[in-house]
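Internal ticket - ligand job 434, phosphoenolpyruvate:
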Amino acid sequence: MLRNGGGVKTGLKIKKAGAVDIELRAPPSKSYTHRALICAALAEGESFIRNPLDSEDIDVTVNALIRLGVSCRKTKEGIAVDGCGGVLPDVGEVTIDCKNSGTTLRLLSTLSLLSPGRVTLTGTKRMRERPVGDLADAIIQAGGDVIFTGNEGFPPLRISGTLSGGRVIVDASKSSQYVSSLMLSGPYSDYPMNIMPKGSIASKPYLRITADVMRAFGIIPRDEGDGSILIPQDVYSVSDYSVEGDYSSASYLFAVAAVCGGRVKVSNLNPYSIQGDRAFLGMLRDMGCDIDLDSYPDSVVAECRKRLSGIEVNMSGSPDVIQTLAAVALFADGPTTIHGIKNLKYKESDRIRAVINMAEACGGAVEAGDDTIVISPAEFRECRIDPADDHRTAMSAAVIGLGAGGVEIDSPECVSKSYPEFFSELRRAGLLHE
Ligand SMILES: O=C(O)C1=C[C@@H](OP(=O)(O)O)[C@@H](O)[C@H](O)C1
Ligand SMILES: C=C(OP(=O)(O)O)C(=O)O
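stdout (structure tokens):
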């Protein structure tokens, strides 16, 4: 970020890029890295996480595990984790700052019951506005005690007690992370844990990622056929685990092909990954891009040569790419309707508000309801966007800037939450100049 002589902050200015033909590498998956660290921390012995994401949120999880007494060592190739076998050492009472990493705070809430001392999980001002009450209810059913030391239902939360397990009914309509939290620590409960999600599950594909990582560490959650998940009582095996690339982060790179026109090849991606955000490729295809999943074993290519069409899509399974699609929708020839947006207001910022502000600032029009948003194409004008510390708003704003020019982004360094190299990668690809 630049500062002018008077000390007044100026943002990062993004100019129109023109047609592209570039190759970029997706960073490792944030969701997979968090989970692999947790499974490794609970396994018996030393695991190695290869190709982990190196970002602010992952540091938050690593530091939290260290505070809980688990040794994690970063090396050039990855992170070595000395697992506790499910019995965390007695580190006394600890308070852990999860910053604004919802995944860390939620996934570690159940795990805190495995620590002999009381654990308080807290975070930034925004994290203290992100709900955790329904997870707390589930943790209490599973044998724990939870006290909210600030506002009821929100961090900070003080967790103590034991993980007894048994039948746990959890309202997961605000976040899938509540279910993932129970699943990941479930193997160490006193009685087998049967998790019954109540109502519609937000961001459901993340549960497959949780099960996938658990499986790699030797524990297979069982789908009971009645909507509940049975977690066997067992100990995770150590693993030498390689983290795949991140489709949420890659969405901005594919979006560049859509808004600038041309071809973008993104490597370090499993073309047939189970990540819910891979669905973004299907959306680009419906808007008129060609997507090639089959020519490379570890790369995906998006090629966009036509005027984009507006689409109608339900994105409840891929919330983290809604801002990316909203940015692309501004370049289409008609409105784009996105359903399934209800839980966007609980993220790093109120992302429904963020999409409206971003689109309107650049000359687009948005109509938003409780669960649906309609984005109309923009008559672009110069704009300045304050992402309000939300990495995904900053990266989506950059997409608009590369397609239309004249976008200035305040405090762009917030991208370090999930993709610290984002702007340097764009620079390396010749898309940013300053
Ligand atoms: O479990 C995970 O790794 C995540 C789940 C999603 O959250 P919700 O389930 O709260 O929607 C997603 O938005 C977040 O970035 C990562
Ligand atoms: C919502 C996100 O993450 P978290 O919930 O971990 O803060 C995100 O990365 O978009």
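Auto-summary: The two ends are 10 Å apart (CA to CA). The first strand starts at residue 12 and ends at 14.
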